[in-house]
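User: tokens in, sequence out, please.
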């Protein structure tokens, strides 16, 4: 059975799928759409390359033998793209010739699946390819949040936020009590409560129900940070005018 944590990981992913066999593509697309955030279809490598350049794509799944531009040539173009050359690439093909496999290895493709595709095997390959990027985004989010809050709060309150992040699930939901945090971090319950209230007031933490809280998203953090910078710059300008 496909695990919930892996399911959540793929649901954050936009996949570009290049396949010239329309029937094969439609069948797999109907299945993949239930697992990923967005699925973009291309009828050959050339169309996939145009789509890739113009859209945000987290992973490319491509057949090898296609008209206009084959899967290996598509992979070469992706690997030469300045801004998106590290995009994960999965090769899907019915061919097992060694030179195709060697070409995909040289291009540092992230996976190789054989047709006819077995759903669980494909999902595992997709998951393995996107997981490092998802983890990196989560690390960046945590660091950005901690940096922002350190500027605003500092001290023990940052330790509390760090604890919330490390003990939240994939949906950024924290389930626990003030007493739990107070005991784990050796911080007074009053300080924990005050920190929670400040985070809620700033819109960085949302209380869902008793014991459950949702941490803000990356977009909400960035919006909050920009608003704070605007307020600081506005205050500086007002002080300059007064002087």
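Assistant: Sequence out:
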């Amino acid at each position: 059975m496909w695990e919930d944590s892996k399911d959540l990981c793929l649901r954050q992913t936009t996949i570009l799928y290049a396949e010239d066999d329309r029937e094969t593509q439609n069948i797999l697309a109907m299945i993949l759409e239930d697992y990923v955030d967005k699925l973009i279809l291309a009828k050959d490598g050339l169309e996939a390359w145009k789509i890739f350049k113009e859209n945000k794509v987290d992973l490319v799944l491509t057949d090898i033998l296609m008209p206009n531009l084959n899967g290996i040539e598509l992979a070469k173009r992706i690997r030469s793209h300045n801004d998106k050359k590290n995009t994960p690439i999965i090769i899907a093909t019915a061919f097992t010739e060694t030179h195709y496999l060697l070409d995909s290895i040289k291009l540092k493709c992230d996976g190789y699946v054989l047709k006819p595709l077995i759903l669980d095997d494909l999902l595992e390959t997709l998951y393995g390819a996107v997981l490092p990027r998802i983890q990196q985004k989560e690390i960046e989010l945590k660091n950005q949040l901690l940096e922002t809050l350190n500027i605003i709060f500092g001290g023990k309150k940052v330790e509390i936020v760090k604890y919330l992040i490390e003990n939240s699930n994939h949906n950024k939901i924290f389930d626990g009590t003030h007493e739990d945090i107070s005991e784990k971090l050796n911080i007074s319950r009053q300080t924990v409560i005050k920190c929670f209230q400040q985070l809620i007031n700033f819109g960085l933490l949302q209380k869902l129900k008793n014991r459950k809280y949702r941490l803000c998203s990356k977009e909400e953090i960035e919006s909050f940070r920009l608003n704070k910078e605007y307020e600081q710059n506005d205050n500086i300008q007002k002080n300059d005018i007064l002087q």
